[in-house]
Amino acid sequence: MDNLYLIATIADQPVAIRAALVESVVDIDHIAPVPLAPPHIAGLAPLRSRVLTIICCERALGLPPTPARRSRIVVVNVDGHHYGLRVGTIEDARVIEDAPAPIRARLDAGWARVALGMLDFGGEALLLVDPQALVAGPDEALAA
């Protein structure tokens, strides 16, 4: 179903992720830091007999992270590897019939790098984000 999206927030911004790219949504209490990892790598966490690399979406956008006791994680598969995208909140999964529209506003560099388009859901503008771009991290992480 190409028009089903997971609605979440990153840095208090409502975003949409194509549900077809989402394996699951989980809460994780403890993330083990990884020494010398790029700043957008929050750490590692166990999930159902596998280890997830946890991505801090805020840091992947070049923003300061928001402290959280418990992490809401969107599990995605990128190039055969499982990653957990740490988001602020998870609202729901929604069917949005209209195709993504081009972005007509000027976005900060981090948002512009991960944005695929805009979706209108009941009058609310949702930024459609690319999980693969979040996993890749900010430009300076790519240069390292």
What would your notes on this structure say?
15% of the residues lie in helices and 48% in strands. It has a single domain (4-137), classed as OB fold (Dihydrolipoamide Acetyltransferase, E2P). The strands form 2 sheets. It has a 5-stranded mixed beta sheet. Strands 3-6-7-5-4 form a 5-stranded mixed beta sheet. The protein is mainly β and 144 residues long. It is globular. The chain is built from 4 helices and 10 strands; from the N terminus they run E-E-E-E-E-H-E-E-E-H-E-E-H-H. It has helices at 57-60, 109-114, 131-136, 139-143; strands at residues 4-10, 13-18, 22-28, 41-47, 50-56, 71-78, 81-87, 89-95, 115-121, 124-129. The termini are far apart. Strand 4 (41-47) and strand 5 (50-56) form a beta hairpin.
In short:
It comes from Sphingomonas changnyeongensis. This is Chemotaxis protein CheW. By secondary structure, the chain is mainly β.
Query: Tally the helices: what do you get?
Result: 4
Total number of β-strand segments?
10
CATH superfamily: CheA-289, Domain 4
What best-fitting shape do the alpha-carbon axes yield? Answer: globular
